[in-house]
Model the fold of this input.
Amino acid sequence: MKSFVSWSGGKDACFSYYRAVKDNNVEAKVLLNMVSEDGKASRTHGISSRLLRLQAEAIGVDIVQKKTGWNQYETEFKKAAEEFKNRGILTGVFGDIDLDEHREWVERVCGESGISPIFPLWQKKREGLLAGFIKAGFEAIVVSVNRNALGPQWLGRKIDENFVSDLKKLKTVDLCGEAGEYHTFVYNGPIFKNKINFTVGEKILDDKYWFLELVPVV
Done:
């Protein structure tokens, strides 16, 4: 089953890819990554577009990066979906866990584009997802946080058992960051052929989000 993967570069995108291939007989043909209007960073996570391309190279799959603002997001997403359909790619993999409005949007947009969506992580328990992600051998760090939920000291934290334990103590933050409390960048794991090398730069406050600058090392 040829599919594209809705791609942010974070843990949920990576783990949904992994689970879809492992459990749903999916052949991932391309990553769909929505980036900022200037093309420099991912639309949601603020990850360097170059790092995202390095992810695709490490996985061994093509990546399509669509420049868009929030107002044009749906239009550009549909254009990409139509392009994939013309290539015989008729399903899409999404990393949503349980936000109904997100799933409703995906199902509507995919339906209007002739694409069948797959949700490998849907309604799975948060702690179980993180445990599975870590046990599978994925390596990821926190690259952005909502300042109303977490402080900049969380930037650069590795997603491991200590991270999960510390996050559980807060009791006010979704363990998987499903409401946008934090976002991650995955740099190694079972779907990667090689580890992605980078250096950590500055912590930058932009409106309500703190971002961690990552610089690729090639």
